[in-house]
Amino acid sequence: MRKPGSQKAIDCKDGKKHKYGRPPESPSQYQGESKISFISQGLMHRPGGGHCSQTGLQLVVIAEGCGEQSTALGLRSSQLRFERCLLHSGHFTWDRYLKETCAIAAPAHCFKQSYTPPANEFKINMKLEAQDPRNTTSTCIATVVGLTGARLRLRLDGSDNKNDFWRLVDSAEIQPIGNCEKNGGMLQPPLGFRLNASSWPMFLLKTLNGAEMAPVRIFHKEPPSPSQNFFKTGMKLEAVDRKNPHFICPATIGEVRGSEVLITFDGWRGAFDYWCRYDSRDIFPVGWCSLTGDNLQPPGTKGEARLVA
After folding, report:
1. 104 closest CA partner among 3, 236, 1, 14
2. Would 163 be classed as within a structural domain?
3. Cβ proximity of 219 and 118 under 8 Å
4. Fewer Cβ atoms within 10 Å of its own Cβ: the N or the C terminal residue of the chain?
5. CA atoms in the 13 A half-sphere facing the CB of 56
6. For residue 252, what are the β-bridge partners?
7. Smallest Cα–Cα separation from 192: which of 169, 158, 222, 223?
8. What are the percentages of helix, strand and coil residues in the chain, rounded to 5?
9. Euclidean distance between the first and final Cα of the chain, in Å?
């Protein structure tokens, strides 16, 4: 997958703040020439803030003319307010994409994500406790080896870089050092521990001695799950490419089956599609990458070769 180029500056036309009402229990349908407000790629936002930065790209987009297929990205007015600015960029933007395709953005209440994205205050080499993704009954020591947006790239101590994984900073699967012991558990070596199992206690002692522990204050509570699966076939969203998990890409709900949804990546062949639960932490509302500072990959063209990590 090609990486997006640098984005150009924007001109803010006005400083008027736009409020969004509480999202309904099911997606709202708009008639005729109704306008749709949604967060677009190109929107830079400091988590917890709501102002327009002249050094970043900020945008609240108005899409018109899509008739009954148009749906607003629902946002709680008490939690998110953005200034309306115009984006001038030759790169992929959600506003133009949704308008051209007459597609709808999945409302924010469909997702198990915070309405205001959490701040990422972690630093490279910080230590924390993490659930072993290959053995979910084990809690291990992990090191932060990468950062992007609201996500952390983690490596279990005693493992190798072939098994790195990504977690959101508000994931319940990461905790401060000492949480496991506090709750009566014991830290375990990761699956595939490179040394002899008997050396684990000494390895653990040496690993934590003098290490920088991630402070408790930078961890965030995991958001609650939606009350039910509100997704509809055809809705647009942003999703982690599970074959290249450092990428987040434009995607579409291809099918809904009970509590499961089929994630299909726009412009890519079905080899990258996957099923997940509606409350998966790997799927995000339109504009999430812009809010967090993560990089949203552009849609592919089905003839392109795509590199698999």
Report:
1. 236
2. yes
3. no
4. C
5. 19
6. 236, 264
7. 158
8. 15, 25, 60
9. 10
Question: What distance in Å separates the CA atoms of residue 187 and residue 180, rounded to the nearest whole number?
Answer: 7
Task: For residue 95, give both structure tokens.
Answer: 């506003």
Classify 169 as helix, strand or coil: coil
Over the stretch 153-207, which tens digit does the pLDDT of each residue have? 999 999 988 999 999 999 999 999 999 999 999 999 999 898 888 899 999 999 9
Q: Which residues pair with 276 in a beta bridge?
A: 261
Q: Which of 82, 221, 16, 298 is nearest to 73 (CA)?
A: 82
The reported pLDDT for the residue numbered 69 is 40
Same domain, 132 and 148: yes
DSSP, collapsed to helix, strand or coil, labels residue 109 as: helix
* pLDDT given for residue 192 in this prediction: 85
- Alpha-carbon torsion 65, 68, 73, 79, what sign? positive
Q: Quote the tokens at residue 205.
A: 């002692």
Residue-averaged pLDDT of the chain: 77
Take residue 12 and report the two structure tokens written for it: 């803010």
Q: How far apart are CA 307 and CA 165, in angstroms?
A: 18
> What does DSSP assign to residue 96?
H
Instruction: Give the mean pLDDT of 29-55.
Output: 33
Residue ranges making up the domain that contains 250: 92-113+223-301
In a domain, 22, yes or no: no
- Residues 134 and 157 grouped into a single domain: yes
Cross-strand pairs, 128: 142
Alpha carbon 235 to chain centroid, angstroms: 17
Structure tokens at 82: 């953005």
Domain limit, last residue, from 167, 194, 218: 218
Give the pLDDT band (50/70/90) at residue 9.
very low
Q: How many residues does the chain have?
A: 309
- Mean pLDDT over 59-69 rounds to 38
Quick check: is 30 in a domain? no
Q: How far is CA 233 from CA 60, 70, 167, in A?
A: 24, 13, 27
